[in-house]
Amino acid sequence: MEIYPPIEPHASGMLDVGDGNEIYWEVCGNPDGKPAVFLHGGPGGGLLPVHRQLFDPDAYRIVLFDQRNCGRSTPHVCAEGVSLEHNTTWHLVQDMELLREHLGIDTWQVFGGSWGSTLALAYAQTHPGRVTELILRGIFTMRESELRWEPARDLLPDHWERFTEGVTGDVIAHYRRRFADPEPSVRLAAARAWARWEMVICNLIPDLSPMDDEFALSFALIESHYVVNRGFLEEGQLIRDVGRIRHIPAVIVQGRYDLATPIATAWDLHRAWPEADFRIVEGAGHSGGEPAVAAELVAATDRFR
Questions:
Q1: Rounded Cα gap, residues 258 and 136, in angstroms
Q2: In which broad location class does this protein mainly occur, judging by the first location in its UniProt entry (predicted)?
Q3: Is the same domain home to 155 and 297?
Q4: Contacts of residue 165, Cβ cutoff 8 Å, sequence gap at least 6
Q5: Do residues 103 and 22 share a domain?
Q6: Are the C-beta atoms of residues 224 and 45 closer than 8 Å to each other?
Q7: Any idea which residues carry the catalytic annotation?
Q8: Quick one: 173 and 61 in the same domain?
Q9: pTM score > 0.90 for this model?
Q10: Which among 285, 214, 209 is positioned nearest to 253, based on CA atoms?
Q11: For every one of its 305 residues, what pLDDT tens digit does the chain have, with 9 covering 90 and above?
């Protein structure tokens, strides 16, 4: 099963969500179709045109948005003097509700991969009455055990060594200091290293393709902000509170050899939520763009259309 052909939005705009922030949103597919909202990864990753292609455009009203301070949302994290003080999981949950109301949607399907799965779970557990179904890929819940890059550092020692070159003490704290350095070249070099490591572990075959500097900065600065603050979640919160959403039809898609969000987390979620359809994709890593993973995701959206 392949993804759907490329499509363009038939509506888009900027939504004022408070705190001086505006988020970019777009709607694709059938204006009268079943509403679904796509949550991108990162945090800080932003939207890609391919994200629109995971839904049948004849059946779905597909809503996508750039989360705070990344993509086309403003102010961008790379702009001078921008603070992430008002960029938390709960701000993003609130933004989703404002966008839903702005578009006149009563309930919608929620689709999230990687960090998007974190946000999807947080949103659904806060607003279960607004969610018709959940489609989750590459499960990430911000527990301490998920923030040590195991087993990635053991399977990719060469890349880990490059990522941690010159690091003394805690890796995350070291990078946060470099991201706060007044010298732009130091910040950019650190962001490139952070984003490169993430891109390497996000694919079964490490991705070493050139990377846009603005993307590297956006991804690294926002993701590290969330990691340092443990996603603004209590330890184990999203799995602990899964009882709030066990009645919601759901599909969980997980690559067997995912190094970015190892399968142990998806397994823990599956054990807490046996009603959800749990799909392990053999021979696949983390990326939703891997053909076998994408096929499972399209099968899930097709099932719920």
A1: 14
A2: cytoplasm
A3: no
A4: none
A5: yes
A6: no
A7: 114, 258, 286
A8: no
A9: yes
A10: 285
A11: 799 999 999 999 999 999 999 999 999 999 999 999 999 999 999 999 999 999 999 999 999 999 999 999 999 999 988 999 999 999 999 999 999 999 999 999 999 999 999 999 999 999 999 999 999 999 999 999 999 898 899 999 999 999 999 998 899 999 999 999 999 999 999 999 999 999 999 988 887 888 899 999 999 999 999 999 999 999 999 999 999 999 999 999 999 999 999 999 999 999 999 999 999 999 999 999 999 999 999 999 999 99
Structure tokens at 63: 């809503």
Residue type, 254: Q
Q: Which parts of 66-191 are beta strand (E)?
A: 108-113, 131-137
Structural domain that includes position 77: 11-145+231-304
2, part of any domain: no
Q: Which residue's entry shows tokens 């404002």?
A: 98
Could you say which of 212, 230, 248 is where a domain stops?
230
- Residue 4 resides in a domain: no
Question: Same structural domain for residues 123 and 244?
Answer: yes
Q: What is the CATH number of the domain that holds 277?
A: 3.40.50.1820
Cα separation, 144 vs 239, whole angstroms: 13
Half-sphere exposure of 155 (CA within 13 A, CB side): 17
User: In sequence order, which residues have a C-beta less than 8 Å from that of residue 176 and are 6 or more positions away?
Assistant: 224, 228
